[in-house]
Amino acid sequence: MLGRHALKGIDLENQDFDAIIDFIPAMAWATTSDGMLDFANQHFLEYIGMPLAEIAGENFYRIFHPDDVDHLGSEWRSIMASKAGREVEGRIRRADGVYRWCSLRQKPRLDPDGNVVKWYGVVLDIEDRKSAEDALKEAKSALAASEENLRLIINSLPVLVWSARPDGSADFVNQSWLDYAGLPADQILEWGFLDLYHPDDIPEMVEIWKRDLENSDYTQLRGRIRGADGQYRWFYFSGRKLTDANGVVRWFGVNIDIENLQRAEFALRESEAALRESEHKLKLIINTIPAMAWSCTPDGQLEYWNQHLTNYVGLPIEEIVGFGFYRMFHPEDVERMRESWEEIVATKQPNPVDARIRRFDGEYRWFNLQQSPLLDPDGNVVRWYGIVVDIEDRKRAEESLRQSQAQLAQVTRMTTIGELAVSIAHEINQPLMAIVTNAGTCLRWLQEGHTDVEQARLAAGRIVHDGHRAGEIVTSIRSMAQKTPARMQRTDFSHSLKDVLDLLHGELRSRGLEVIAELPPEPVEVLGDRTQLQQVLLNLIMNSAEATPRDHEAVMTIRCTEYPEGKVEVSVSDSGRGIPSDQLDQVFEPFYTTKSDGIGMGLPICRSIVEAHGGRIWATSDAGGSSFTFTLSSFKEIAVDR
Hints:
By secondary structure, the chain is of the alpha+beta class. It has 18 helices and 22 strands.
C-alpha cells in the first residue's frame, strides 16, 4: 500500500510532509488543484481497506454510498469553484463493507496569486453522532406528537379539565371548559372562573379550596357552574397537587357534570321517604289482611312473617327467622319441605307445596305454601314472597273423594263382572266339564281288564291343569270384586294382561273379535296395584269391544312398549266407528258417556288410576277406529331413583 511512499514524481519535501501526516491520528487526504486524489494517509487507507492506487484520481467516488455520489460530487465541484472549504457529510464504505456517516472537511493551499495549488482535507467518522442526532430528532418528533396527542385527549375528554397555581388561580382550562362556558380562555383563567359559579355556592367552595391549598394535597367539592345557555348545572370538583422535577407546584383537576345524578339523589331521598311511609302502610295492610304472609332473603332464609301467621303458630318471630321455620312443620314433612324449598331457591322457579303446620295448641293442619320471587333486571332474586293457605278441609274432602272413587271403582268392577257373568260362567264351565271328562277317562283306564296306568296318569294331569285354570279364573274374579286398598308393588304387567284376556276370552269370542296382543318378549315389570291396573285394562278392552261392530273384520290390538328411559306405554286400539274429534277431550269427564245405558264413570276412573300411578292417559281417533293409550313407570326406573 502507498502511505509514506507517495506516487512517483512527488518531491522530497512532499515526502516528508506526507510522512508526517501518516502519523496524525485522523484520516487525512490531499488532491491536486483540479480535485484529483493523490494522497491518503495510512489511517484513511486502513479504514476503507483499499490501497491508494485504487482510489487515486477520480476513483475516490467508489468509496461513497451510491445514493450519496451525485450529492457529494456536486458539493465537491462547488467547493472547488468557490476556492473555499466547507463541511460535507456522506456515507463511506468501511473495510468491513459497512457504510458509515462521515464528515469531509477540506481547505485549499493557495499561491501568492490566489490560485489553488493543492487541496487538503480530513475525514471524520460521525456515525455515532449521526445516530444520536437521528435518535434526538425522533425523540423530539415523538415528544411533539405525544404533546399533541395529550392536548387532543385533554380537549376531547367529556369533563372540564383545569390546572391552577399554588395560590389557586387557574392557568389552564381545556376545550370542554371553554365550550361549556361559551367564553374565551382569558375570561376564565386567573380568578375569572368565580364569576361562573352560583352565588349561593361561592362562599363554601372558596373556603374549601383555600383550606385544601394550605393543608392538603387533594381537594373535592360540589358546586353549580353557569353554562353558555345561562343555566346552572351541578358539578363534582376533584383536584390533586403535583410537584414536577424542577420543584414547580401545580394543581390539576376535573369538574364532572353530576346534574342528573344530583337530581336523582334528590329524587331518591324523596322516594326513600315515600318508600318508608309506603312500607309502614304496607306492613299495616299485611298484618291486617286475613291471610298468612311471609318473605325470605334470596338464599331462602325467613326474614318476615306477618302477625296472623305468628299468632297461628304461637312462636315469636325470633325463633323462626332464618331457617328456624322448619320447626313448625310436622316431623314427617320437614325433610320433604327442605328438599322442595332448596330446589325452588336454586331454580328460582315457584312450586306450591303442601305440608302440615302445628297450631299454637299443638294440632297439625294441612297448608298449601305458595311462593313467588321478586327479580331484578338481570334475573336475580331480590326477595321471595309467599302466603300460607289452610287446606285442611280441602284435604279431607279429597280423601273423602278418593274413598268415593274407590267405592265407585269397586261398583264399576262389580257391574262389569255382572255384565260378563254369563261369559264368566261359560269360561268356568269349560275347565269343569274338562275335569269331569278327564276324570271319567281316568276311571276307565283304571278298570280291571282295561288298565293303562300311563293313560290314567295323563288324564289325571289334565284334571290338575283344568282345575288350576278354573281356580285362576275364580281368583281373578274374586280379586277384582273385593274392595281392597291400592298396593303399589312390583307387578308383572304382561301376566296381568293375560289374566284379563283369559277372563274376557268368552265375551270377546262371542263378539267375533280377533285380539292381537303385541308384547315384548321379556316380562314387563311396573310399579303399581295389580287389581287397579287390571280394572283399567278391563274397562278399555270392553269399551273397544262394544265400539267394534260384529263382523269378520273386527280386530282389537293391544300393544305394550317399554322405553329405555323407564316409561311403559300401553295402547288398546279397535277398528270401530271411532270418536268424534270434538268429544276426545270430554270422554274422560265424569258422567259423560256416548252409550245409551252407560253411567260415564269408566274412563274417569281409568284416568284417576293411571294418574295415581304417575302416568297419563289420552284418546285418539280416525277413520280406522279409536285408540286409548296410557303410560306407567317401569319398576327398574323407580328402583334406580330410590
